[in-house]
Amino acid sequence: MRTRRRAYSAQRPADLGGAVWSVPVPIPGSPLGYTLVYAVESPAGPVLVDAGWNHQDAWTALRDGLAACGVDVREVRGVVVTHYHPDHAGLAGRVREESGGWIAMHEADAAIVRLMRGMPVDSHREFQAEMMRRAGAGAEAEAVRASERPDPPAQPDRELRDGDLIDLPGRVLRVVWTPGHTPGHVCLHLEDADRLFTGDHVLPDITPHIGIYPYDRQDVDPLEDFLGSLTRVAGLGEAQALPAHEEPFADVAARAAEIRAHHEDKLLRLRDMMTGDAAEPLTIWQVAERMTWNRPWSDLAPVQRGLAAGEAAAHLRTLESRGAVRRAPGAPGDPVRFTATSQ
Q: Do the bridges between strand 20-26 and strand 34-40 make them parallel or antiparallel, or are there none, so unpaired?
């Protein structure tokens, strides 16, 4: 797979012009390597787009990287978090402590943060294990009980909705709600420069994780939401994309169309696979085992298999909503199973 990701050691803070800077912030132990945090200057002080992982090395990189761009972290006006994941929201609380600024996040992700902050670690592990068991996992369901959970991010001070303008005097930075990767993921359109901060929604070479949690929910369809969000972003035209990973790139509309085509192809291949195995209803876990990932299933750790199952569940849910697969009858408490329809 081609990627524009370079080693974190090769990254440097960059002046992107138009009073916008990027600062690479490391993600310890992650193949993603780093999050690109952006600083947008205004007459009333800079606003950050995302903040990075909550780790001392990441904090040092953020503070010193901003300083290299002429931005004192103590003068930050606020942090807009594109979504609640720890490599984006983790340091927002520390920036708030240093600067007295605000944290803003879409209301749907703010609700998830409240839930996470109110859930004890042991309860979260039990939830994860039961979710995996319902998907048809074996020993992996027990393995997650021993896994560590990152600390939940800080609760935001401001909750955003689609179309809101960020408090950034002298600039026009508008919220574009793009659910899919998370329920409250947002892109941010810097309208005075026709630039789009895309978070994880549109990346130049890789695609974001789209999953359902719990895996067997029927009241949501995050992949269909994501596809709709891609269409919406494509409607913004050839704006320059400023993503949270890899590097900035031109023509966000073209890349959004590529990602949509990738998932539509993946849905077709999954439908064909389910048709081939039509005599045997499959659990979500069995479907995930049969799908193609960036590494063989046997090489994936239990947590990575759990993420793969979440993505398999999201694709199955979209096929279900389109009438291509259905849930097979089963006894209460049994893992949910899917089978192809006759259409």
A: antiparallel
